[in-house]
Amino acid sequence: MKSFRIESGRPTSLQSGLSCILLHAGGPKTGTDSIQRCFGYYAANNFKWIADDFELLKPVDFNTSNLSSITHRIEQDHTQAITISLEGFITKQKLSKGFAELNEKHYVFSSEQAGRPSLTPDRAKKQYEYLRYYCDQPRVLYYMRDPMSQCLSLITQIIKEGLDYHKVLPQFLKGQPNMRNVLTFDALYGTSNVMCVPFDPSKFRNNSILYDFCDRLGMTDDKMNISSFLERFNNTNNSPPLNLLCLLRDIYKRLNMPQNTRMHFLNALSDVSLAGPKAVLSDFLSSEQIARLSDLYVNEHDELGAYLGFEPYALNLLFKGEPCELTMAETEHDYTYNANELFSAAERIRIRLEKHNLLNNDVMQRPPLSNLGPVRGAGSLSEFLDSVDNIRLKNCLSPKIMCEASLDYLVNLSHIWAEYKRCGSGSGVV
């Protein structure tokens, strides 16, 4: 491993007492979703003192602080009126080029698109020019993750969402993504305005990206009780084990799941703790593809480290990995555990549906959305639910098939709830 020279002038956190607009360029699988869910909704709605100190910018017609879609619009043409939503929000907050003199709040523009491997200098420049409307010196916070684990994590996320993972690898093989992004940010914003942070949860305070994010924004326990707040936030957005990824891949192939249903299904899935070994790159990529990615990984590590003056991420040459061989008993134990967890998640939705009187006769007579598992042949949702209850009671099927049944159960109840929310939660129409 190469030694790195020390380069001065790069910040590690925001300067206290000085307001700024910060671009949180959240690269794929660097905790961006957790940051947005925690501080964009949970904090703003539960802890006023968080919002008083900083705010994740959110356009007025969106329910999320994930501004990836807005970022895409800005990159296409930041001067057009299509960005009026975000402009309207910033205007309402009385921000301008002199806004730093008005208050001490940080405004964070958080976007998963802004730090992606496929970011080009031209698109990054449009982001920069857009932020310059409101601040002379916008800052950047960029978490750097090693391409090997980032690629694998992104592949598993895309499979979880039912999309084509084959488009992931080419993004990483076009060049050195972290190196290119850091050089681009430095050229646009200036080195003294760009925070580059190795994404290594083992070295974060309390092993948490949320704590590290607070530290970078100067929010410490000396100023407010950050620890008390963050301990209440349940971060469960973890990658599922390989056994469930395979089941998910199968269910998406056989089922045309509506986008609204998919979102509610994935939300329910994110709250579930699942058992089994995680996937490795060799589960999805050929040995040649892994070797090409590994070469990029090592070269970028050394070149970026020499440029920054510190190690950008841990160099883990053992990450290629081989599939974990489990005994039959271990495999069945994992499927049994996962079946129970998925069933419990579906039961929680069922209780919610019953509370709102949504499992009425009209709904129960409709065909289930997912009916291709062990309870296939059920003509109605009523028959499907009876079949699920029956096989759970008898427990006569193999652990894997029981897991498939629980997955179908979770999909169908997520679909009912998603349709209820889509049609208007006050109408009772499903």
Number of helices: 17
Rg (C-alpha, Å)? 24 Å
Overall body shape = globular
* Strand portion: 5-15%
Question: Would you tell me the structural class of the helices and strands?
Answer: mainly alpha
Count the strands? 5
Helix-residue proportion: 40-55%
Largest sheet: 5 strands, parallel
Low-confidence stretches: 1-7, 426-430
The end-to-end span amounts to 59 Å
- Average pLDDT level: 83
Read across the widest sheet, the strand sequence of neighbours is: 2-3-1-4-5
| Helix and strand sequence | EHHEHHEHEHHHEHHHHHHHHH
Describe this structure in words.
- The chain has 17 helices and five strands.
- It has helices at residues 32-46, 48-53, 68-77, 84-92, 121-131, 147-160, 168-173, 177-189, 209-216, 226-230, 242-254, 259-270, 287-308, 328-355, 361-364, 381-394, 399-423, and strands at 21-25, 54-56, 106-111, 139-144, 194-198.
- The chain has a five-stranded parallel β-sheet with strand order 2-3-1-4-5, with helices on both faces.
- Helix 5 (121-131) runs parallel beside helix 8 (177-189) and helix 14 (328-355) packs parallel to helix 17 (399-423).
Comma- or semicolon-separated keywords:
about 425 residues, mainly alpha, five-stranded parallel sheet, 5 strands, about 5% strand, disordered C terminus
Lay out the secondary structure.
Elements: E1 21-25, H1 32-46, H2 48-53, E2 54-56, H3 68-77, H4 84-92, E3 106-111, H5 121-131, E4 139-144, H6 147-160, H7 168-173, H8 177-189, E5 194-198, H9 209-216, H10 226-230, H11 242-254, H12 259-270, H13 287-308, H14 328-355, H15 361-364, H16 381-394, H17 399-423
Parallel strand pairs: 1-3, 1-4, 2-3, 4-5
Helix pairs in contact: 3-5, 5-8, 12-17, 14-17, 16-17
